Amino acid sequence: xxxYDPHAIxxxxxxxxxxxxxxxxxxxxxxxxxxxxxKSYVLEMLPYPSGEPHMxxxxxxxxxxxxxxxxxxxxxxxxHPMGYDAFGLPAENNAIKTGEHPRAATExxxxxxxxxxxxxxxxxxxxxxxxxxxxxxxxxxxxxFLRLFxxxxxxxxxxxxxxxxxxxxxxxxxxxxxxxxxxxGTPVESRKLEQWFFRITDYADRxxxxxxxxxxxxxHVLTMQRNWIGRxxxxxxxxxxxxxGIDFPVFTTRPDxxxxxxxxVLAPEHPEIERLVAAADAEEAVRDxxxxxxxxxxxxxxxxxxxxxxxxxxxTVTNPVxxxxxxxxxxxxxxxxxxxxxxxxxxxxxxRDYEFAKAFDLPIRQVVEPPAGEVPEDAAYVEHTEGERLVxxxxxxxxxxxxxxxxxxxxxxxxxxxxxAVSYRLRDWLVSRQRYWGxxxxxxxxxxxxxxxxxxxxxxxxxxxxxxxxxKGRSPLAGAEDWVATECPNCGGSAxxxxxxxxxxxxxxxxxxxxxxxxxxDEPWDRAVADHWMPVDQYIGGVEHAILHLMYARFFVKALAxxxxxxxxxxxxxxxxxxxxxxxxxxMSKSKGNVVSPADYFERYGxxxxxxxxxxxxxxxKGGDWSDEGVEGVHRFLSRLWRLGEEVAxxxxxxxxxxxxxxxxxxxxxxxxxxAKAHWAIDKVTxxxxxxxxxxxxxxxxxxxxxxxxxxxxxxYGDAEGGPCVRLATATAASLxxxxxxxxxxxxxxxxxxxxxWETPWPEADxxxxxxxxxxxxxxxxxxxxxxxxxxxxxxxxxxIRLARGSEKVxxxxxxxxxxxxxxxxxxLVNLVVR
RNA sequence: GCCGGAGUGGAGGAACGGCAGACUCGAUUGAUUCAAAAUCAAUUGCCCGAAAGGGCGUGUGGGUUCGAAUCCCACCUCCGGCACCA
Length: 835
What we know:
Elements: H1 6-20, E1 39-44, H2 55-72, E2 77-79, E3 83-84, H3 89-98, H4 102-120, E4 130-131, H5 135-150, E5 154-164, E6 169-171, E7 176-177, E8 180-181, E9 189-198, H6 204-209, H7 219-229, E10 232-241, E11 246-252, E12 263-266, H8 273-277, H9 283-295, H10 298-301, E13 311-318, E14 325-330, E15 342-345, H11 351-360, E16 368-369, E17 389-390, H12 401-415, E18 418-423, E19 429-430, E20 432-433, E21 443-446, E22 450-453, H13 481-484, E23 485-487, E24 494-497, E25 501-502, H14 504-507, H15 511-514, H16 527-533, E26 538-542, H17 548-562, E27 575-578, E28 581-583, E29 586-587, H18 598-605, H19 607-616, E30 624-625, H20 628-651, H21 658-661, H22 669-690, H23 695-716, H24 722-737, H25 742-753, H26 767-770, E31 774-781, E32 784-792, H27 797-806, H28 808-814, E33 819-825, E34 829-834
Parallel strand pairs: 1-2, 1-26, 3-4, 12-14, 26-27, 28-30, 31-34
Antiparallel strand pairs: 5-6, 5-9, 7-8, 9-19, 10-11, 10-18, 12-15, 13-14, 16-17, 20-25, 21-22, 21-24, 23-24, 28-29, 31-32, 33-34
Helix pairs in contact: 1-25, 2-19, 3-4, 18-19, 19-20, 20-24, 20-25, 22-23, 22-24, 23-24, 24-25
The chain binds one RNA strand through helix 7, strand 11, strand 15, helix 11 and strand 30.
């Protein structure tokens, strides 16, 4: 007997799909798509092409493909495209090391990805393939940049930025992990530079409100985004330094503690420090302190358990609520990036202020009293609970704290000394990079006209060819003199190009829109086409993008919608975040030497086995440890199904015909048992898909079905009604495994049913076969299982109790005791409570 | 510190108020084979027992319930995110 040959089978079906362009879908109103089917946009996060695909890619695309197949067979027109996020640092660092052009390295990697995706049999509409490094694509990235620029959402500003000394580039806040560069691990430094920003903070509230428009996002992703945005409500209160005539607004979430402010602290970067200490006694000491703070790395400054340091400025400000003069300090525990870079310090009710007050021997004045009157020793009282009342707070003394917050804000507003305010942790998105391998920022600087956007009809601003990729504190593009020197689009005078490129997150913030209309040369997408396909119905990707990519893409979509370019407010209504694949319990990495690549397994077992295994390992949203034995087990199962298909094709004559489907209920014995199992599996797999893609249990159900067929088949082959049942059950197993193992599913289904499984509707479970005439009645005594009894499905309660009491095993436990209660769960269980 | 998530056999996991351990791996045994691989069949939570059967079992302690892995409270451990954010 021949054996399961995945390579031959997979090649064969891949050729069919390739030559018939099975997975391509047309846009409405163009080439004959009538729009009769509802649409479904199934999208996996696009890969960053570096080297070859890894297990995380396999998992992501296996999950997405299963969903795409499931939806197609439910009558949806499924858009399932693929592309490459091709700009970025790894290709450029490789270029610096080897001299190989980043384009060459990237494109050869894309070739590997493309080939493997085909070998995996992922059902992709290849006619829509895109890559972010092509001028055809980044032309529109630049075009969107210009639209944001026009709306004031892209701006240039000098700002303290996080600088990676090794990569010699600026990093976004999001790319700094524990004070270190996300890519190379070097401690990040603070520098002041002119940089480009996107004004994402304008959208902070809408990014929060947008959560309500989503259907299904993992709770932890929403929480992470919410925390990242970090919205705090409170008040802005103005403290004045009358001596010098400077106003210092501060942000506080606790205006109820204003009477407890006993000193005032500025961040070392605060722009007014110079003026405050000029020619004063403290000048030297303050300058030393500020310089040292600036030199220290972000990591050092944020170190835990760091004692509070600072220097008195020798100046005071006035507390607006009580007119007190309170001393000013500079300290590095105040951050310039949050709030106003200045704080009112309330040591009695803020732990940091408390520590500072202790270190500098400053007064600590309690102004809020807990309901029980207990205040912690050696710490600030920071609770914020019901029943708190104000003390030592002038006219507000005795007022409940929650009410005091409102009243004090109202008072401040009346007096013109403050107002209700909201502050965010979120900062504007720093998008410029002093690197080569990215989309050039389409701006020129003209001596006469200043900053001038490149006109749309001159896009794309193509990336020039250069010799030296290594950044030296400025963009490598600055070395391309011929390219930098240009003409001002405005006045025709001499001008110089912006030499920074865009963060790659910009490229990936809109790619899902370009898939919709990838060959459009007049605009990034046709609005009507976008209206048809958007939003993405199901997005799939790793949790590592839970904050950055998803938030940036949401911001883009909202901004584009505001410009009238899109009709949706949220790009991804459903998100599935897959867990990470590990090996021997650890993240796979070259340095650990525990990397296994999908390609190794296709050699040995074929794509179907690897894909099915990765979906079977455990719930897909959780991580999983890759096990060679595990793949083998799944491979055994698929082989078993294939052999079954061969045997059934030979030993049964008929294809399951439609008329047989009407006769199921007259079936009896094993034939009915088998068919019932098939319908149980249909029901189970379908429910598991709907219940958050519980693929592990769905695949287990198909395994159970196959096991049942093996158990019963030999007794049914000779039988006039049994044979077709075996055939039908086996074809059903093939049909149900198809979303995970598409080649094998197609092969076995074709062999048994003579049809293309992807063209047949998803099977429906027959309710008549899901229920049976008898049930297994579980009998408990005092909640403990004592017996199982076969009973009629519709037996009345009294009958069930009679059966339960009649059981010999049950009797033994009732002996000499009194039954005080009988609990009956119809169709399931009887519990006898005895004493 | 704050915010999430999770603790179940030798392993991955299933069940998510009603039969704990589906399915898979691993292990053991048998059939087949000259032999091995592959395949097929059987056993496999722990303890007592020859068996029938019984007892104990879902991180720990308590609670709710006729009944709890599942719900509630407290605690322990692990994983992830954020963290001097005023």
